[in-house]
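User: Here's a structure from my thesis project, written as structure tokens. My advisor, Dr. K., wants to see whether a designed sequence matches the one we expressed. Can you design one independently, without my sequence as a hint?
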């Protein structure tokens, strides 16, 4: 099987590629965004996220978004009568 690496069958081809070292995991990208959250505005975080998506190509961009969507949409959350879900949608649509 293509998902088997060194006798271990992985759940997905992506996981098998990670085990083979063909893909990098997103730990460095997680750390980058964690550090940026300390001092950057939501707009700056979205810009950084866009750079990561277009220049670095993280292996799981959806997971990165889910991890930091609250911080990246914080400026929308402060608008009057905006739910957290609506704020996340506004932040997400900045990338479309």
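Assistant: Designed independently from the structure alone:
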């Amino acid at each position: 099987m293509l998902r088997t690496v060194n006798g271990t069958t992985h759940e997905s081809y992506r996981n098998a590629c990670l085990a083979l070292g063909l893909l990098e995991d997103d730990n460095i990208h997680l750390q980058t965004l964690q550090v940026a959250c300390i001092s950057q505005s939501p707009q700056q975080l979205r810009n950084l996220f866009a750079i990561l998506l277009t220049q670095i190509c993280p292996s799981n961009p959806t997971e990165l978004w889910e991890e930091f969507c609250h911080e990246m949409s914080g400026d929308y959350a402060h608008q009057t009568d905006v739910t957290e879900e609506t704020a996340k949608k506004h932040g997400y649509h900045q990338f479309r």
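When you compare it with your expressed construct, this may help: The first strand starts at residue 4 and ends at 5.
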